[in-house]
Structure of Polymerase/histidinol phosphatase N-terminal domain-containing protein:
Amino acid sequence: MGEVNKKKKKRGGAKRRMTAEQTLALKSVNEWVLLAQHSNKAVDDEERENEDEFLPEMMRRAQVCEKVVFDLHSHSICSDGFLSPSALVEKAHQNGVKVLALTDHDTMSGIPEALEAACRFGIKIIPGVEISTVFSTRQVQVIQFLAKDDSESEEPVHVLAYYSSCGPARFEEFDQFLTNIRDGRYVRAKNMLSKLNKLKKPVKWEHVIRIAGSGVAPGRLHVARALLEAGHVEDLKQAFDRYLYDGGPAYSKGSEPAAEEAVQMICKTGGIAVLAHPWALKNPIPVVRSLKQAGLHGIEVYRSDGRLAVYSDLADAYGLLKLGGSDYHGRGGRMESSLGSVTLPVLAANDFLKIARPIWCDAIRNILEQYIKDPSELNLKHITRFGTKRISTSNSEKDIINSYLRSWLTKEEMQHAVFQATMLKL
């Protein structure tokens, strides 16, 4: 009997020890997550001189998490979500999320509100966007000598972009890129309504626009909700399954750019490009191969139901980061993953930051250089566009810039020779 009890004790859920690699990764991730709190802390000039002691002291005060929850895929009412950016951040806080990427479709308009809310809840926000694109198989067919069928097929592909607190470099160019996609969404939605009308399922344009909200480019979800409210379907799933699925009887394309073009734009503007939900693709291999050549950094592998081995292997084959997020919209129901439900291992989070941080640092430096060349209010706004707090207008430009940089860059990053050369010009 004693032996049985001993065996039971051995089988008991003893906490699994972290490896040395995991421990170092956790320390690095935690330090980056705490930067915003470090920056927001009210510390006078005398205390600033002791910055070397400040962050370790903060980490000692139970601020460090043994599990840092990242959710790198979420949506608000600024695209097709059901919660405002601030409500989304509050929900993330309730669910234990420490790092949240707001990735609305083809817009970054919700980022400032999310960042303001994040200051109240102690969450780190990664400014993001999910870009709607198309992938053409024509080039793949030529390469593979599959010229038996000359027909060209296209497939919708979504690419996630993650930026620093200063947002994209070359902001006007990137913003126009997104604007062109959003303009196409209006045309696309009207085409969908025209097809639905021919199917004897009429929906009014005013109804769709009211559901989408002021200034929000309508998407398929808004049309689906209009169908539901008009009594043509029993639920949103039926709206997609019967009419709005890719290639469905009421489906329509917009003016989405090529997936490769979107990846190149993200890389050019200082972002991290990640392929979203590859399991939704008919054949992800040619998509991943082509986007890797264009500069793709990662692929979603982790979901709320765990890691998908086939996409993990695909990431390994092409040397891509393995990431994931809930793709939370706030619509509720059994089919939706909750915020923070995706377990992103600390090593995966650290790998992401090791690739992303140098890219973000270069982008921030390029934005600063632009301000140095032309210290206008507009160029200062480029630096503070996605800043993490409001600052009194009485503060000097240098104080404002330093405050935003401290919320995102480590002391080591700011003291790098190349970055220091830029800062000295200020």
Remarks:
- The two ends are 75 Å apart (CA to CA).
- The longest helix spans residues 171-198.
- The CA atoms of residues 319 and 357 lie 18 Å apart.
